Amino acid sequence: MEYTSTRNDQLSVQAAEAILRGIAPDGGLFVPKQFPSLPVEEVLDLSYPETAQKVISLFLTDYAPEFLRKAAEQTYGGERFAQKAGYVSPVGDSGMYSLELWHGPTCAFKDYALQLMPKLLVQAKEILGDTNVTKILVATSGDTGKAALAGYADLPGIKIAVFYPNEGTSEIQRLQMVTQKGENVAVYAVQGNFDDAQTGVKRVFGDPAVAERLAEKGEKLSSANSINWGRLVPQIVYYFYAYAQLVRQEVIENGERVDFCVPTGNFGDILAGYYAKRMGLPVGKLICASNKNNVLTDFLTTGVYDARRLFYKTESPSMDILVSSNLERLLYHITGDSKKVADWMAQLNQQGHYQVDHETLAQIQEHFACGCANDEDGAQEIRRCFEKNGYLMDPHTAVAWHVAASLRTNTAEQPCVILSTASPYKFPASVLAALGQSVPADEFEALRTLEEKSGMPAPESLRVLRGQTERFGQVISKEEIRQVALSL
Ligand SMILES: *Cc1c(COP(=O)(O)O)cnc(C)c1O
Q: Which contacts (CB < 8 Å, 24+ apart) does range 458-467 have?
């Protein structure tokens, strides 16, 4: 399978190179040149690791099938996802189902990609004979940092540094990061907000002097963010696996359409659903759910992408984003025109906005619906769903639940699967407040109160954080990120 760039379709590389490079030399994103087809019958009776191997090997044709089989088994089999990889909860709320993607080691859906991608990266270096030490720099608002640390810890030939905004994450998210074990990991708080951390990291990536000094030592920078093809491809798997479960549970017959509603930030998770559809999965609408930062709702409604707007800090921080990078991939697949895409992206970079033509918008709307929910809508949804079904959801999932429910006009419609992207116990204070409870100042007290209220134990990996040693406590300025990159 060959890959090209969204901004220059003359380019052609294999998967290993797309994964090792991360981003195309012209600044575009790597995209597959065709979509392999995968009939649902072929995955109906497969386990999650088997489904993963099937889907991923169709795209990573330059990787040995046996390597992929083992990698999928090690990642998704066993206890790492608590035997609940791709689990669809039976909570049937008027035809809506919850695809629980938070049973992995860091309790957010990013584990699906970040537990596998490090193995894909190490193997890509092997395939391409690249002997550099890879230094991974990650700016994070919370979830990505821990998931990347957990995925890359103690891998050969890799070092990783994570930068989070000082006092900008939840206490649990901070503890998850600063207690990370491993010889090759480092974690820093950066003065300022997430944008400061992100800008600081981007500046280092764009600094030729840094690249040169690292090259002298046989080192190379790389990023773990969601524009890497290696992060997207593992996410296609759970769309197939969720669909197969609904068929096995006789909720639908094979061939009937199912909608998926996805709490969206960088547009990676929902794009994987579009890929599944292009591979032949009977998907109806992909519903793009945004929080108060609703730039995508506006785009999918009007065709105008306008990032010149206020940035809101919300209770669903992983969706607080104004430039959704992976949308660029969709624009390429819909138009098949890398010149057009390059123009739009240049406009976005220079002027902060662009507008797609009428035909492009109409084609996008054939596949995508959209909606947004503010913090209050989300909180009401958490409470309503808990009181009605005894089912607890986190603030990101709640945004999607609210959007899906408000788009559904009658319960006889086709089933809708909501992607549940984080454990409610990752945001105990926010969830308790939504339930109308008083919130203890200490996050672990909040966690315990929430356990009592719900009668459902919190994931072990969060509970044990309380007693663990904090390994990293350094606070740096964004200018100092450069020094960290050089000395790591
Ligand atoms: C990252 C994240 C999202 C958004 O996913 P994208 O692929 O960036 O659209 C939603 N929910 C949670 C909990 C996340 O961590």
A: 458/423, 458/425, 458/428, 459/103, 459/107, 459/423, 459/425, 461/105, 461/106, 461/107, 462/107, 462/172, 462/176, 462/423, 462/425, 462/426, 465/172, 465/175, 465/176, 465/179
Which residues form the pocket of ligand 1, taking CB atoms under 6 Å from any ligand atom? 108, 110, 143, 226, 263-269, 318-319, 396, 421-422
Task: Report the alpha-carbon distance of residue 79 to residue 422 in Å, rounded.
Answer: 18
Residue 308 burial class via C-beta count within 10 angstroms: exposed 0-12, middle 13-18, buried 19 and up: exposed
Note the pLDDT tens digit of each residue in 152-178: 999 999 999 999 999 888 888 999 999
Residue 352 main-chain phi, psi, to 5 deg: 85, 5
Q: Which residues, 6 or more positions from 362, have their beta carbon under 8 angstroms from its beta carbon?
A: none
Instruction: Tell me what pLDDT residue 210 has.
Output: 95
Count other Cβ atoms within 10 Å, centred on residue 349: 12
Based on its alpha-carbon atoms, the radius of gyration of the chain, rounded to whole angstroms, reads 21
> If you take atom 11 of ligand 1, which residue's CA is the nearest one?
421
Say if residue 121's pLDDT is above 80: yes
Residue spans of the domains in the chain: they are 83-111+230-424
Please state the pTM of the whole predicted model: 0.95
Q: Which residue has the tokens 């000094």?
A: 213
Give residue 264 CA to ligand 1 midpoint distance, Å: 6
- For residue 190, the CA-to-ligand 1 centroid distance in Å is 22
Tell which one of 396, 419, 430 to mutate to probe ligand 1, the residue whose CB is within 8 A of the most ligand atoms: 396
**Where does the pLDDT of residue 199 fall: very low under 50, low under 70, confident under 90, or very high at 90 and above?**
confident
Q: How many CA atoms lie within 13 A of 101 on its CB side?
A: 28
- Whole-number Å distance, alpha carbon 211 to ligand 1 midpoint, is 30
Token representation of residue 370? 């959209």
Are the beta carbons of 186 and 481 closer than 8 angstroms? no
Determine the straight-line distance between the first and last CA of the chain, rounded to whole angstroms.
Answer: 35
What CATH architecture does domain 83-111+230-424 belong to? 3-Layer(aba) Sandwich (3.40)
Q: How far is the CA of 422 from the centre of ligand 1 (A)?
A: 9
> pLDDT tens-digit profile of 65-93?
999 999 999 999 989 999 999 999 977 66
Residues 288-310: tens digit of each pLDDT: 999 999 999 999 999 999 999 99
